[in-house]
Amino acid sequence: MKVHALRLIEGMDLRRGIEEYAKKENIQSGCIVTCVGCVKKVHLRLAKAVDTLEKEGDYEIVSLTGTISKDGVHLHFSGSDEKGATIGGHLMVGTIVNTTAEIVLLELEEYDFSRMYDEHTGYDELVIQKK
């Protein structure tokens, strides 16, 4: 296992920033350990994968979790507004960092993560192989 730490700054796309870092560092299999910071625009896909939600405003990052594979990322986000109301869902491109996003990733060098279409779910799902 190998630990990675990165910081995204204002105006950066949260999802793209993680994807670009993973590609640059050649992370084939990994997970999000933690993320703190805030965003000024949120773009999420909601449950049932039909509707998306786009909101502008200040949101504290309450949680960011997910996996990184050589075929891409699968990330879930939750954020709370100035009243503490929380929204969450599948993180989409278009979630924009406000002041900072401090992220720790764990690279799982003993695994090979990939994604393959699953007829049962209708999505590209994670395939886990031990090296």
Structural overview:
By secondary structure, this protein is mostly beta strands. Helices cover 8% and strands 66% of the residues. It has one helix and eight strands. It has one helix at 14-24, and strands at 2-9, 29-45, 52-69, 72-80, 86-91, 96-107, 111-118, 123-130. Strands 1, 2, 3, 4, 5 and 6 form a six-stranded antiparallel sheet that branches. A two-stranded antiparallel ribbon has the order 7-8. The longest helix is centred in the N-terminal third of the chain and has 11 residues, at 14-24. The protein is globular.
Map the helices and strands:
Layout: E1 2-9, H1 14-24, E2 29-45, E3 52-69, E4 72-80, E5 86-91, E6 96-107, E7 111-118, E8 123-130
Antiparallel strand pairs: 1-6, 2-3, 2-5, 2-6, 3-4, 4-5, 7-8
